[in-house]
Amino acid sequence: MGMVWAIASAIGPVLGGVFTSKVTWRWCFYVNLPISGAGMAILVFVLKLHNPRTPIRKGLAAVDWLGSLTVIGGTLMILLGLELGGVSQPWSSATVICLLVFGVVTAGLFVLVEWKVAEFPIIPLRIFSSLSSIASLGVCAVQSFVFISGSYYLPLYFQAVLGASPLLSGLYALPFALSLSGISALTGLFIRKTGKYLPCILFGMATMTLGFGLFIDLEQELNLTKVILYQIVAGLGVGPNFQAPLIALQSTVLPRDIGSATGTFGFTRQLFTSISVVVGGVVFQNQMQNQYPTLVEELGPKTASLLSGHNAASNVAAVAELQGREGEIARGAYLKALRTMYILYVAFSGLGLVMSLFVGSRKLSKDHEEQKTGLEAMRRANADAGGGRRGWRGGKKDDKEEGKDSEAVRQTFESTTDEEKGIELGGGDRLTGENRAGDGPGASTK
To answer: How many degrees, rounded to 5, is the angle at CA 204 between CA 132 and CA 171?
Structure first.
């Protein structure tokens, strides 16, 4: 699944360039309709789940509506505040301040709701009771934050600085897409064969830091060797951590929490991908705005206004129309802004490398475990654990019980046989040993 996500995310900009050049940019959105429709139709026929009959009213009542509302509201306000700040609104404006402050407050209310109110929280806080779990989610956040800058802002470099067309820009980005897709597939095979995920995480974070650091060295003129080689290094760093941190996270939670942990992982990935696009855009636009006086002096106020602030990313075509010294100045301004932006991403990547040192190490085996679904099964699990509103460590079993449960990892690389009935919230690779991972760097079991 990680490889599928990696391929789709990396190939998307390439297809976007094709659609923009040959048809219309609207096809970047139209293409989702038939693909999503086909996917839904396939699921109807092939997805077989243990699905106990639950009355609609009881099912709706069990949904964590308040948690959903607060997390969506808080996320939107924070993202919008970051998007507006320093671009269309000054950071000191009431609009930006209110969005950021109330966004943080709403996010705090979400934590309170999950801790004290929700019977079936969408993100149980007990997931964060292990240092290894927190580190795994941190690696996911940083990898997502840094990865999307390659897919999103490398085409801007190709078009604005190198003068490539959207289609050629997509072709230039292929080394990044192919390398991360290939290493993502190899990572899955490695984990399946060895049962070890930590080496993949450490290798990925270190190589990603190196690769995105190399992007700072990209030149104003086309150097095809650097363009290809730097992208391959960055892709080899990004690819391993599409899946490995998820396996690490699933290995530290109880079987009944694997579904919630997986959802939290996906939410973290999407959230920090969105934040990255916004933050990277803010840094780029502010850097272009800082160069406005120079651009006015060299290009005149009319052209300078097209290439500064929030107009810069949308007026790449204007750069291609500039000739001689004017074109060099404009392309140099874009390159300088992009370099500053990638310094930010390298710093975050280094932070992720430090976080990866705190991911616990456990060797996986291939035993299978089933978990039942349904409201009654969930209530029994909460009752056995002492209630659904136990806070950060609610429902945590003692070491002996956890050893029996083996804290199974969701079935990621192994499929079950037809005789193995039921929904698998805790199925898949089972862990060996009795000690929990997550007690710090190098935690391991026999």
So the answer is: 140
Q: What is the spatial distance between Cα 412 and Cα 419, in angstroms, rounded to a whole number?
A: 18
CA distance 336 to 358: 35
Amino acid at 443: A
Which among 174, 330, 147, 321 is positioned nearest to 242, based on CA atoms? 147
Cα-only R_g, the chain = 24
Give backbone dihedrals phi and psi of 120, rounded to 5 degrees, phi first: -125, 80
Lowest-pLDDT choice from 55-69, 104-118, 211-225, 256-270: 55-69
Tokens for 435, please give them.
């000690």
User: At a CB cut-off of 8 Å and minimum separation 6, what does 390 contact?
Assistant: 126, 396
185: tokens are: 């597939």
- The pair of three-digit structure tokens given for residue 287, joined into one six-digit string: 């850097």
Closest CA to 367 of 407, 423, 421: 407
pTM above 0.85, yes or no: no
Closest of 261, 25, 433 to residue 443, by C-alpha: 433
266-305 pLDDT, tens per residue?
999 989 998 998 889 889 988 888 888 888 888 888 888 8
CA–chain centroid gap for 156, Å, is: 21
